[in-house]
Amino acid sequence: PPVMLVELLFQAACVSLFLSSGQGRVYPARKKPASFAVERRRVGPHVCFPGSGSGCCPGWMLSPGTGKCTLPLCSFGCGGGSCIAPNLCMCPDGEQGITCPEPLGTCGEYGCDLSCNHGGCQEVARVCPVGFSMAETANGVRCTDINECQSAACEGTCVNTEGGFACECGAGRELSADRRSCRDMDECQATPCQHRCENSVGSYRCSCRPGYHLHGNRHSCV
């Protein structure tokens, strides 16, 4: 009997140890911080932590419409194409690449400048206002007025203006609708004569009705 009692006590101790050890292995599940989950739902895909102020991964930026990181960036610009993924452009000819080739002559006779913004960089035409030419100087680009009268087709006199030119006609003539050629001005429309007026090229002549003669001033009738 003492031996059996010892065995029973030993078994009871083992069961107690097993139960206590099993209970010690039960842990409550850990919850993710609420702030992380909320931030993830608010920003959307392509989010990197830690990141810049927007939290977007490199190559992505916040879309103004949704506030999510769904707007791709193409660092080299896409020209006439569109940015469909980070540094991947869809070009007008259907080809894809890190940038799209610019059509020949896009920048005009003055070449291109590199214009950069949050969406990347692209080449833009360097231009001066109409009627001005561009010149490179030590202080940068200078726009100089072009003297259009050197090539303008004015029938009368050409007057150069800042950024353009104007044609003028002599006495007795006026500009036509094309603003370049001249036509005879009908001075008789201003009724300079007391009785009758006869228009001529660049001038006019007054006359009187029967029974009157022209005054010395060449306009009145006596």
Main β sheet profile:
3 strands, antiparallel
**SSE class:** alpha+beta
Total count of strands: 15
Provide the low-confidence segments as ranges: 12-27, 31-43
What overall geometry do the principal axes of the alpha carbons give? rod-shaped
Which sequence of strands runs across the widest sheet?
3-4-5
Compressed to H and E, one letter per element, the order equals HHEEEEEEEEEEEEEEE
Please give the radius of gyration in angstroms.
Answer: 45 Å
Q: Assign a percent range to the helix content.
A: 10-25%
Structure characterization notes:
The protein is of the alpha+beta class and 222 residues long. The protein folds into four domains: 45-103, Ribbon (Laminin); 104-146, no CATH class; 149-183, Laminin (Ribbon), CATH 2.10.25; 186-221, Ribbon (Laminin). Helix content is 15%, strand content 28%. It has two helices and 15 strands. The protein has helices spanning 2-24, 34-43, and strands spanning 60-61, 71-72, 82-85, 88-90, 96-97, 112-117, 120-125, 132-137, 140-145, 157-161, 164-168, 173-175, 182-184, 196-200, 203-207. The strands form seven sheets. Strands 3-4-5 form a three-stranded antiparallel sheet, with no helix packed on it. Strands 1-2 form a two-stranded antiparallel sheet. It has a two-stranded antiparallel ribbon with strand order 6-7. A hairpin with a 2-residue loop joins strand 10 (157-161) and strand 11. The protein is rod-shaped, with a radius of gyration of 45 Å. Residues 12-27 and 31-43 have low confidence and may be disordered. It comes from Catharus fuscescens. Keywords: Disulfide bond, EGF-like domain, Glycoprotein, Repeat, Secreted, Signal. Residues 1-24 form the signal peptide.
